[in-house]
Amino acid sequence: MNCPDPLHGYYLEDLKIGMSASFTKTITETDIVLFAGLSGDTNPLHLDADYAAQSFFGQRVAHGMLSASLISGVLGTRLPGPGAIYIDQHLSFIAPVHIGDTVTATVTVLEINLQRRRVKLETVCSVKGNVVMTGSATTRVTRRPSHNLPPNPSK
Questions:
Q1: Which letter does DSSP use for residue 142 in this model?
Q2: Which stretch of DSSP H or E encloses residue 108?
Q3: Can you say whether residue 83 is alpha, beta or left, with left for phi > 0 and alpha for psi between -120 and 50 degrees?
Q4: Among its keywords, does the record have 4Fe-4S (predicted)?
């Protein structure tokens, strides 16, 4: 699902429980190196094949927050889309992501609080249909400007 307005995204009134959107990306060596540089997380589990081979994982793994950042991509570009403000995120990491894995980040609307303009979304990242990360996020979403509201049929 792509948001209806690439410069704004969905308005609060346009959202429905159960709406969902995804983004898919194959994780590369370059992604891991760049993310290490940006985040400052140079843990050798991510960068050193010899070190990682001796670890619990047996090989290098992508940063958990690299996968989690794909959720931000969905929230900021697809659902709710541009204009939404990321309020919070809760995450549980289930399985590692490796170089070459294709991660699909999916968000699904769980709750809509019209008074507070808050939308709670389920967040899931998966690889080949297997969940590698799960959680929930809250966003603040803009109301539709009154000049754009559909006419009220009761008037």
A1: P
A2: strand 102-113
A3: left
A4: no
DSSP letter for 8, please. Answer: T
Structure tokens at 11: 């308005």
pTM: 0.88
pLDDT in tens, 93-151: 999 999 999 999 999 999 999 999 999 999 999 999 999 999 999 999 999 887 555 55
Residue 63: both structure tokens together:
């940063």
CA distance 91 to 109: 16
pLDDT in tens, 59-91: 999 999 999 999 999 999 999 999 999 999 999
- Look at residues 109, 104, 36 and name the one whose alpha carbon lies nearest to residue 71: 104
| Owner of token pair 């948001």 | 3
Contact (CB, 8 A) for 52 and 63: no
